[in-house]
Amino acid sequence: MTRIAPLVVCVAVMLGALGSAPSPQPTFKSSTELVEVDAVILDKAGDFVPGLKAENITVLENGKPQKIQQFFMVSHDLAMNEGPAARDSTDSGETQYGAHRVFVLLFDEAHLANDSIMRAKVGAEQFVREMFSEGDAGGIFVNGGMYKGRLTIDKGELLSGIRSVQPAFENRQGILVPFMEWPHIPSEVDAVRIADGAREVTQALSVKACDEDPQACRNEGGAGQVENLIQQKARLYVRQARMMTTRTVQNLEKVSRGLAKIPGRKTVVFVSEGFFVEGERSTIEMVAAQAARSGITIYSIDARGLINGLSINPEALRRERSRSTAFDTGEDGPNILTQSTGGFIVRNIDEISRAFGLIVRDTSTYYVIGYQPDNPNMDGKVRKLEIKTNVPGAKVRARKSYAAVKLPPQEAIWGPAK
Questions:
Q1: What is the value of pTM for the model shown?
Q2: Helices 281-293/223-259 angle, 10° precision
């Protein structure tokens, strides 16, 4: 992904050779100087609100109103060209129809159980066959890098990339299995507290374990030895979980850096069961803020399918059972990534192609808002964003923050229309 710039040229050449040149892109003011925010604005029925103007929008950065310098609507839906949006010009007088899209599917193998990977691969293949349109560019991020090191418009190559996804040798559901075994640790939060030296938690769990199974307690050597066993189990889990999270964060950073050179909106579909976030929240928030600055919207698909939080069934061992989240605080990670970048999480859907359908629909029509911050100093800090509209009953979904960093030179992957 760090070499994505020269490979992007390959995509442009392929598009030209296939005669699939896109409609002209709107004229950007300098996107390396402006902060761009993609906003999805929906009415009470959940339908996109077309025809808005800049005066309908307020942009707040760290609570301060900003002057909008660029505003237009982008839609992949050609049918909208015949609707009200075609008759209602935006403030800049530019509306782009038939827009091309960039999709990167990031499979978080360390945080996907075998059944989740199989379910996700089926849905991803259906996405490529049925929802990946002519002129779209895509890539499959798997095993620490982009499949064949590039974006492509070739559906066959994307399908091959999806089929190359394999379970990690060790995954998060696997290292959670000992939580169900005696002596029990109720949750990841307890494991973190024990690993950090919370002796009262360890002692309480040891007493409970010995009450539940006195014979096992005697066999282990008494309550003191049970405490040692609980501490060992907690420390091992925290160490393994943090290593897995580090790999996930590194992968997200690779994708963000690689896509930063491509102007416009980029969609990253993060396929995962969630990951350990304790002690890593600030790092994850920064990764999300950097992605937002690069024009990336992250959507997450929970590949577990139907899940519940009502029981402590060891889902890693009983595939026929609906997946439990009783020990799981991993949803916090995808929540940070999606909310910060303007996307959303799709959960509790067994047919993953439906999840992809929801994402494709959402990422296909949106407004682009550009402004030059009152504070022009790109100091690397995270700045909070809030986008409001004066349209009664309308709701805005947009990125919540961005990292104030300079963007690299922008390199469009599609040439001008012929």
A1: 0.83
A2: 10
